[in-house]
Design the sequence.
């Protein structure tokens, strides 16, 4: 998979015209696990097409009888507990895709069809708050130190991401395609591409920081946020 040269800002110029759904795709296609899943999926899909044909001549009955056409739904606690899904549905369930899985080799502006995303997953219920302009940007959370913290921290992260999504949707935060946000999202992608090429976070941020002094100076903070968008939060970005 070929990525832009992270050192060249002009290589990322087309991103300025992307929709939130396309931005989400740019992060997901950099996810190594998605690339691996897609390689498995498309290899299996083409083998099934070879055996049973392509529309309109596909033998759907025999296709659906083939075990290769199915995979256990992701998220089951134990192997064998998940519902069997057709592999294209499995990809959609795992990655939040609403259409046939796109090839991660394709940048957003080369996709044959706009990316479609499933509805956001449910998140933990927010604590009561006064929904006015003064308090809408504040969230109170309660943690139970007697219970495992990892699950609580993950629930809190998702709650906060959902709150940001709602505020953007209601027009109370700058949209994901605002000029400032575009610069930050582009910097995240360039940082991911730099790491993918073997550069260190510090090396990448030295160049990016010289180009845009408004970026956070802490390379580790930038990398954590970039990886969060690549690995999970692209779905919130898609609906912003």
Sequence:
């Amino acid at each position: 998979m070929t990525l832009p040269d992270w050192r060249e800002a002009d290589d990322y110029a087309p991103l300025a015209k992307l929709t939130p759904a396309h931005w989400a795709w740019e992060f997901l296609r950099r996810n190594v696990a998605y690339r691996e899943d897609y390689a498995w999926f498309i290899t299996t899909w083409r083998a099934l097409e070879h055996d049973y044909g392509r529309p309109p001549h596909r033998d759907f009955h025999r296709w659906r009888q083939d075990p290769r056409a199915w995979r256990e739904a992701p998220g089951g606690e134990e192997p064998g507990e998940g519902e069997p899904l057709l592999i294209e549905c499995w990809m959609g369930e795992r990655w939040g895709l609403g259409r046939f899985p796109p090839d991660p080799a394709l940048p957003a502006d080369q996709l044959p069809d706009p990316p479609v995303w499933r509805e956001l997953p449910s998140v933990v219920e927010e604590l009561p708050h006064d929904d006015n302009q003064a308090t809408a940007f504040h969230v109170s959370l309660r943690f139970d130190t007697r219970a495992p913290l990892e699950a609580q921290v993950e629930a809190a992260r998702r709650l906060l991401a959902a709150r940001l999504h709602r505020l953007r949707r209601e027009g109370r935060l700058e949209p994901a395609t605002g000029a400032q946000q575009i610069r930050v999202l582009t910097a995240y992608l360039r940082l991911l591409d730099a790491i993918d090429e073997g550069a260190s976070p510090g090396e990448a941020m030295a160049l990016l920081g010289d180009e845009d002094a408004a970026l956070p100076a802490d390379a580790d903070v930038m990398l954590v946020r970039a990886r969060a968008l690549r690995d999970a939060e692209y779905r919130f970005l898609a609906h912003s």
In short: The longest strand covers residues 70-72.
